[in-house]
Amino acid sequence: MNSPLRAHTLALSVLLVCSLISISAFAAERGKANDPKNAKSAFATSEISIPGPLRSFLRMAGISQKISTEDVMPLLARNVYMQGYEGGNRPTEFLILLNRYVQQARELTTLAGSEEVIRVAGCEDAKPLLHTLGYRVRQECGKHDTSLETSDPERAFLTIDSGFPLPNLEQTLQGGKPFEYHFAATRVPLLFSEADWTGAGNKREQHYSKDLIDTLLHDSAMSRLYWAFSRLDPETRDFLRQSVGIRKLMPEAAVLDFYGSYICVRSGKVLVPGGENAAPAWKSLVGASPDSAAEFIQFLVSKDTGWLAAYFDVLSRVSRSQQAHFTEAGRLRTFYEALRTNDMSNAATRGAFRPAPDFQSGKRFFARRAIPNWCGNGGNARAA
């Protein structure tokens, strides 16, 4: 016999699928004109310096060469937490190589000097560069048959994999024209300031660094939180930085990653599914008023191991009429109790990927959002 609660749970799952279809259609109609990346923002941003050419860094970080500079840091953070660790805190080969490349790139930047050009005129001044690259001269330098061989396999691998023009250097050592290679640090946009992020780290941890690149490469929680913040609209993420703080949100990085992209703050208030009429019901369920956005969001993301945030996220995706139905009177709590797992050890954020719906087994999971957050269009309108 099917219970009403089981039916309600299935209804929520079905509504999610419908909402994803309607949201995709909505996004197509809006087009690029409403993309937040196409609008200049007055919110907190800055720049950060990445050692070496951007092309080489993207290659080593597993990031497409076609992305915009605004996406470099978010995608770096995403790749670090998703691909950088296995079995807990054990770094993967990907992360080890990326760390080594960053250090090598800094050494090459130093060799390039203030002119940002690595120059080698002949055999003698090639020695510091060859050491950094992990190579040495195989035969007598300056001859037509002079060649290079590996002296440090780890460094040599990075040299080749990052695309350093080693054949050109070899030709110089054979008596050819002087070697010149532009090697400058690259400035890319950063959410907030570097101090905002590094200041939120645990200074007692061995990986703590005042350099954000190093910090992200050694702190998966901070990397995940940076990625989650990058998917919020500018006003919401700036509010969270000022009113809650990065340090306080660090333990909830996974929840914000999976279920935070539809949290929307306007004028210090959270736009909730169902609109103002549903605000009292959300206050009762969450334990804080949507009018007190900082407290509401902290309660939302920390309660019930992520299940309440998952519930909020699902209802944010459906149409206005569906939101009105599910948030009417006592329904909001009833449906949540049907949705929430009784086993609080079964967190809504388990795994690296947000699970998709599984109707046959009755598992109550939700699909990852595949389109931008249209928070700026008035909350409920983005799911209309």
What would you call the shape? elongated
Q: Report the major sheet.
A: 2 strands, antiparallel
What amount of the residues lies in strands?
5-15%
- Count of DSSP E strands? 10
Report the helical percentage: 40-55%
In DSSP terms (H or I, runs of 4 or more residues), the helix count works out at 18
**Which structural class matches the secondary elements?**
mainly alpha
Low-pLDDT sequence parts: 4-41, 356-374, 376-384
Calculate the terminal CA-CA distance, rounded to whole Å: 35 Å
- Average residue-wise pLDDT: 82
Spatial order of the strands in the main sheet?
1-8
Order of helices and strands: HEHHEEHEHEEHHEEHHHHHHEEHHHHH
Please compute the radius of gyration using only Cα atoms. 26 Å
Descriptive account of the structure:
- The protein is mainly alpha-helical and 384 residues long.
- Among the domains are: 1-40 and 233-384, no CATH class; 117-182, no CATH class.
- It is 47% helix and 9% strand.
- The protein has a two-stranded antiparallel ribbon with strand order 1-8. Strands 2-3 form a two-stranded antiparallel sheet.
- The longest helix has 27 residues, at 4-30.
